[in-house]
Structures are given as structure tokens and as C-alpha cells.
Input
Amino acid sequence: LAMLVMGVMVWMGHATVVNAHVGLGFIFVLLVLLQAVLGGIAGAGWGLAAIAVIWAVLLPVIGLGQTTFMVGDAHWVVRVFHVLFSLAILGVVERIGRRALSKPSAK
Output
């Protein structure tokens, strides 16, 4: 939630939160990578874990590069995509957790 609030603040011109947003974004990516590996080990499926790893690698590329993508009137599309992509990763991580916990060895 903090990331979303900070992202909205950046959109509204509050550049003072950019560094915090980026820093927390990198922590988020590291946690996604950790969840992917641990979920794969716990039996959630390495395919789903691989998807999470690929998305986690792409997220900072999109986030840090968004200032140069589609500059102009259509730039809002990149911003919305960044938010939706981030929320989608949360869904993948949630699915990894559910699958890992549903395995008999995880109970």
C-alpha cells in the first residue's frame, strides 16, 4: 500500500518520495525473488517460480525506464502499466504461496 501511495505522490509531482519508492521497489523485487525460490523448493512449481523471477527482473526495468518510455501525452499508459504489472506480480506471489502451503510437506 505504501508503494502505491508513494507512486501516486510521484505522479502528483512530489519528487521527494522517488528515492523511497525506488528503494522499497528493490526490496519488493528481492522479496518476490525469495518467494519464487522458496515456493519452488516447497513444491509450488518451478514454472510459476520462473514466471515470478522473470517478472521481478522486468519490474525495475519498467519502473526505472518509464521516464523515457512514451514521453508525451501517452505517458500515462506506461504509468498505468507499471502499476498493473506490479499488482499482477502480487497475484503470482500469492499463488506461489497458496500452492506451497497446499502441499502435504508444507503443513
Q: What stands out?
A: The chain has a mean pLDDT of 87. Helices lie at 2-11, 18-42, 46-65, 75-102. The two ends are 29 Å apart (CA to CA). The chain is about 80% helix and 0% strand.
